[in-house]
Amino acid sequence: MAAKDFFSKEGIPLNLNVKLPVGVGEIKKDHAFDLGCLDQKVLIECKSHKWTEPNDNVPSAKLTVWNEAMYYFLVSPTEYRKVMFVLRDYSEKRKETLAEYYIRTYSHLIPECVELWEYDESTMSAVQLAFNRLS
């Protein structure tokens, strides 16, 4: 798994399906995050969605899953580092990646504590995307 390999090179050993209690109030329920490290307090959700074929249309239904991940990050323990790790998929038609589109259209739903990382399969590298929360 790309995210597991990437973060292990960064010195963060990850486990699959790390469960933590999450919730908006006193009632909590365990949620399994895709990857995590309880010792280093890291939670990671991984998404490999792409623009739809053949016209690079927005995969709206898939992006609701990204929004759901943001909600789970929001209601997870505050002391954890939270990373959304997504596949880089560039649209020539739109001149942006799917992650850039997500930031542009859904930044109001991204909690301040979340890092958004984009993984490039061709170079097997990842970069953290920066974005202005006030725009």
List keywords for this structure.
single chain; 135 residues; Rossmann fold; 3 helices; globular
Describe the structure.
There is one protein chain. The protein contains three helices and eight strands, in the order H-E-E-E-H-E-E-E-H-E-E. The radius of gyration is 15 Å and the shape is globular. The longest helix is centred in the middle third of the chain and has 15 residues, at 60-74. It is α/β, with parallel strands linked by helices and 135 residues long. Helices cover 24% and strands 34% of the residues. The model has no long low-confidence stretch (mean pLDDT 94). It has helices at 2-9, 60-74, 98-106; strands at residues 15-22, 29-37, 42-47, 81-87, 90-91, 96-97, 114-120, 125-129. The protein has a six-stranded mixed beta sheet with strand order 1-2-3-4-7-8, with helices on both faces. A two-stranded antiparallel sheet has the order 5-6. It has a single domain, classed as Rossmann fold (3-Layer(aba) Sandwich). A hairpin with a 6-residue loop joins strand 1 (15-22) and strand 2.
SSE diagram, text form:
Blueprint: H1 2-9, E1 15-22, E2 29-37, E3 42-47, H2 60-74, E4 81-87, E5 90-91, E6 96-97, H3 98-106, E7 114-120, E8 125-129
Parallel strand pairs: 3-4, 4-7
Antiparallel strand pairs: 1-2, 2-3, 5-6, 7-8
CATH class: Alpha Beta
Low-confidence stretches: none
Count the beta strands. 8
Instruction: Give the CATH topology.
Output: Rossmann fold
Judging by the overall fold, what is the CATH architecture? 3-Layer(aba) Sandwich
How much beta, percentage-wise? 25-35%
- Overall structural class, as computed from helix and strand content, comes to alpha/beta
Helices, by number, come to 3
Q: For the CA atoms, what is the radius of gyration?
A: 15 Å
What is the mean pLDDT? 94
The ordered H/E elements are HEEEHEEEHEE
Globally, the shape reads globular
Query: Strand order of the main beta sheet, please?
Result: 1-2-3-4-7-8
**Count of structural domains:** 1
Q: How helical, in percent, are the residues?
A: 10-25%
Characterize the biggest β-sheet. Answer: 6 strands, mixed
State the separation between the terminal residues, measured CA to CA: 34 Å
